[in-house]
Amino acid sequence: MDLKVIEAHKNEYTISTDINKLDISSIHEFLSNDTDWSYNIPLETLTTSITNSLNFGLYYQEKQIGFARVISDYATIVYLGDVYVLPAYRGKGLSTWLITEIMAHPNLQGLRRWILLTDTADWLYKKFGFTSLPKPEIYLEKHNPKVYLKNK
């Protein structure tokens, strides 16, 4: 599927889906050092995940200050992951703006299910209609939280 690059601007901030604008080393620095979900993720693994996702870079002027990506079949389901805004830029409404732009993306409309996993920002996602699992007993997963630790 060929996706059109979309950009949104607000003052000196930009959100872009242009994969060529991403500062992958900056994204890797944050995800591999400052998150519990991607701690120690290898650069090659991150690069593969970005290559196979629809990415949303958040920039102050030209500097990468945030990121999110979605994995989707663009017909029925989307997974939202790796969402962050650097600490120095938090409290400015940028995460709300980022999620707003993601939810409005034309290729992500009319889908049956949106999925995300978070233990830090449920207040943000609840603004967009995300809820806890109504039937957690039907949810299954195979999860290896230490998968990247073998790379130390």
From TrEMBL:
The UniProt entry, under Gene3D superfamilies, shows:
3.40.630.30
GO MF term (any one): acyltransferase activity, transferring groups other than amino-acyl groups
**Where does the N-acetyltransferase domain lie?**
17-145
Q: Which SUPFAM superfamilies match?
A: Acyl-CoA N-acyltransferases (Nat)
Coiled-coil annotation: which residues? none
Concerning InterPro entries, the annotation shows:
Acetyltransferase_Butenolide, Acyl_CoA_acyltransferase, GNAT_dom
- Residue stretches spanning the membrane: none
PANTHER family in the record, alphabetically? FAMILY N-ACETYLTRANSFERASE, PUTATIVE (AFU_ORTHOLOGUE AFUA_6G03350)-RELATED
Q: What is this protein called?
A: GNAT superfamily N-acetyltransferase
From what organism does this protein derive? Formosa algae
